[in-house]
Amino acid sequence: MIKNYIKLLRIPQWIKNTFVFVPIIFSQNLFKGEYLITILEAFFIFCITSSIVYIINDIIDVEADKAHPEKKNRPIPSGKISVKQAIIAAAALSLLLILFLPFFNLLFVSSVVLYFLLNFFYSSIFKHIVILDVFSIAAGFMIRVVSGAFVIDVEISSWLILTTMFISLFLGVMKRRSELELKYITENNLPSTRKVLSEYSPDFADQMATVAAAGVVICYALYSVSERTVTIFKTENLIYTTPFVVFGIFRYMYLVYMSKKGEKTSEILVTDIPMIINILLYLFVITAIIYKVF
Q: Residue 47 sits in which domain range?
């Protein structure tokens, strides 16, 4: 039963909430204890909120998920956890969230509420509307980043926010592209679980992915050489982290197009060895440059 509840909460998906750490890293506060504790608390809040959203989404889609070849194994559609038990779990998490939120500033609380509302409407409406579905996903990542800035009261570069938008758009579009590749799209299962896919085509998804990928690279490169960035970090060396970003984009595209992966974004990020090494090297180099470790 514990294992089923862990699956219900989608704990592996919590990796997406690490976007709240972006502001603390780029504001040069990563090694300040008070800031780090606060951002960890914010990460915990988003983990609770995202789990509530996942439960609500599974309850809404329970009938459709029963027809999906993979989603049918989730706790609710498989019957391992009843809808009533899921509602109780969501209510318990909501109560926990309500107890913790008063300890945070108003801007952060507002962003958490906005994140919840966005995902609620995504689960019920937006995910059925072409293009708006991937933009809703992107907005969720942007809210995480902005929330990370709100909770520690620091400014964040507009270029970083744009980079976040494009990379989340890229991941969302590539996920749709992966779903289009699966054989069951043309069979009897997926049309009832992801109806919006009928509005996409591989060519259209490829063009969107190209635009989003280019946006990531351009916005990040411009951020690394912007006057504000050079002034704050007192170095122009941030440009040398761009190859890691480009490699990450190309590697992800390779996994989607050549290895037929991409439907499970979080799984790729924690299981693909080259991707893991690239992320770790990026974090090491960016930290060394920003905090002048060497």
A: 1-156
Residue 202: pLDDT above 70? yes
Query: Do the domain assignments include residue 84?
Result: yes
The token pair at 174 is 């590539």
Distance CA 186, CA 201 (A): 12
Highest mean pLDDT among 121-125, 231-235, 241-245: 241-245
> For position 20, which CATH number holds?
1.10.357.140
Model pTM above 0.85:
yes
Is 83 inside any structural domain?
yes
**CA 183, CA 189: separation in Å to the nearest integer?**
10
Domains: count for the chain = 1
Is residue 88 in some structural domain?
A: yes
The closest of 143, 153, 156 to 39, measured between CA atoms, is: 153
- Could you report the per-residue pLDDT of 132-153, keeping only the tens digit for each? 999 998 999 999 999 999 999 9
Token pair of 143 as six digits? 């809210």
Asked if 171 contacts 265 with a C-beta cutoff of 8 angstroms, the reply is yes
